[in-house]
Design a protein that fits this description.
Layout lengths: L2 E7 L6 H14 L3 E5 L2 H7 L2 E3 L27 H13 L4 E6 L1 H12 L4 E5 L15 H22 L1 E7 L6 H10 L3 E3 L7 H13 L5 E6 L6 H10 L6 E6 L11 H19 L5 E6 L2 E6 H4 L8 H10 L2
Parallel strand pairs: 1-2, 1-4, 4-5, 5-10, 6-8, 6-9, 7-8
Antiparallel strand pairs: 2-3, 10-11
Helix pairs in contact: 1-9, 2-3, 5-6, 6-11
Bound molecules: 6-O-phosphono-beta-D-fructofuranose (F6P).
The site of 6-O-phosphono-beta-D-fructofuranose (F6P) has 10 residues, from loops.
Length: 322
Amino acid sequence: MKRIAVMTSGGDAPGMNAAIRAVVRTGLEYGFEVYGIRQAYAGLLAGDFNLLTSVEVSGILQRGGTILQTARNEEFKTEAGRKRGLRRLREHKIDALIVIGGNGSLKGAYELHKMGFPTIGIPGSIDNDIWGTDMSIGVDTALNTILDALDRLRDTATSHQRAFLIEVMGRNCGYLALMGGILGGAEIVITPEKEVTMEEVALALEDAYLRGKSHAIAVIAEGAPFRTTELSEYLCSKQNVGFEIRLTILGHIQRGGSPTAFDRLLATRMGVKAVEMVREGKSGSMVALNGRKMDEVPLEQAVSQLRPLSDSYFEMARFLSR
Ligand code: F6P
């Protein structure tokens, strides 16, 4: 019998609970004991391990957030911290660890693997910036939340003939902004991946106004080349934009909520696959969605680069906004 541990780390993402449930119940199916580590690497260092039963993961599939809680931890980034973490895993006689989280969290998982501890990663982050997987857990739900907000903001924008600047999350990645822009019918999308000036944004909005549009939507990634507040001030100071300007920063509302069917399925499949990988004695890999298939990619590759955005989506966003 194996004793395995699971943690959720970094920013929470809708679907993390579904993944925990799948890990626990797949583990039980294989006769493993599954321990939940509370508050990610901080909990690992504190030795906060708790045996999870089937009942404890009952009723969580549809819940946003994470029952194991999460944290960002500086100590585990140091060698001394990692050594202490490894000691804790050994003290609790854990045979393998499954880490559900974003780039920083998966880096921690990779470090443990390099120290000889069997570790598997599951990509969980609303940003969709994790290399090697088509989608990470939580992206679809966050995107649907963004679309709901865009639709609502367009209603009021149209009623007042206003332009709305809507800032979305994504850290240094423009995925949520780009997809939100394409699927929410934005006039312009601003991401960290493409250089754009505030003057160009003003011209795009003015162009929409002159073409007789009753509203304009600009979706701006939080990692954009300029701050949205700066952009808003700049546009308000220009006489020729036409529209009155309003700014909405969606913020952490994008991280909460019940996971969509897509995220529940993705998280469930990834949780099952991660335990299968542990059972096969694998380590240093991340579960990945490749087309329709559950795949494996080396953590080394996944943590050393960011997932690129396809140029064809930028092109689509440009001509569909006309
Ligand atoms: O990585 C997920 C994310 O929500 C990013 O989009 C955002 O930049 C960051 O986390 C916010 O982090 P925190 O919740 O620690 O403020």
